[in-house]
Amino acid sequence: MFSRIDSFSRFMGMGCSSCFGFRVQSQDHFLSDYDQSDDEGGEYDDCERTDMTNGSYGELQSPSKRSEQIILFRIQTGKVCRETPVKETHLVVRSEDDNGNKMVKEYVREFKIGSGSYAKVVLYRSSIDGKRYAIKAFHKSYLLKQQVAPSETAMSDVLREVLIMKMLDHPNIVSLIEVMDDPNTDHFYMVLEYVEGKWAPEGSGASGGLEETTVRKYLRDIVAGLIYLHAHNVVHGDIKPDNLLVTGSGVVKIADFSVSQVFEDENDELRRSPGTPVFTAPECWSGVTYHGKAADTWALGVTLYYMVFGKYPFTGDTMLETYDEIVNNPMIIPGEINSQLKNLLEGILCKDPQYRLTLSAIVEHPWVLGEEGPIPQHVCRCKLNIC
Fold first, then answer.
1. For binding ATP, which residues are annotated in this chain's numbering (predicted)?
2. DSSP state of 341
């Protein structure tokens, strides 16, 4: 499909080897959080994703307007889905409660949930409503020092994430509740809906993954969230198990919009692929433009494969082998599985994006329909009238 050496050479030296999750690593490596000592943000190892930029960040997408401009225009014109606006706080008081627990404003710290490239995620409980919230904590000074592209810093990614989440309101997408940015401090906080946990293969399924009924339910939730995003011309850019959270009632919600992009229209061409490499579509490795929605669908396929088999379809012992697996090697189905499910996997993980199943085809696939029937349609509040 692509010239192996010419295409791969573009990515040499663009990230540490641990970013690519070779087979010499444990499978858990792909789902683990970074462990840092400072709960309120700090300096983090940015090896979770790899910047595959070929050109300046300004060439990231072909529409004339960048994501930030598009989002601000939608917000200003009321073309947003949220009924309750995201709360914005510009005076942040950090203190302790009577038991010595750290507090940020009215939120009382309970324990750290995880951490990523730039932020800590800590569980807090509101002293006002008693509810639990997941708070992402950043250091602005650190974000501003991290160059993600020639003209962009990590702060740009975080601010774009906030803007995107200000628009969204869907039962299968994690909700942003409040943003706290005190100009007199170095701290920046995103207060998010708390979702109880992440899913992981139980080994109870026929092939070592989840039970087929659970896989179908989870996939339907993820697809519903993705359809909503794509209808609003939002490309997530990093669909993977780590960014799919499960509520106590078993509802899957899409999280982490830190590398997402918004488009003015249906033209979703991208050049930079900042997602996680083992979930990256073959066309993203070519060094030329590709379509973000089709790449999201490929990542959905890799996620489905992981749910079914408890492992990834394309990995290697080295960076070059991983690249070759994704771009050139066929998908292997280990053991016997439902023939309709096999057909679905083959359709989603088609290496040629022109023939890859689209989300509209996936929702009509017999295995996805199952006994449940069509995925419920979401009624959108925004003025775009596109859901």
1. 136
2. H
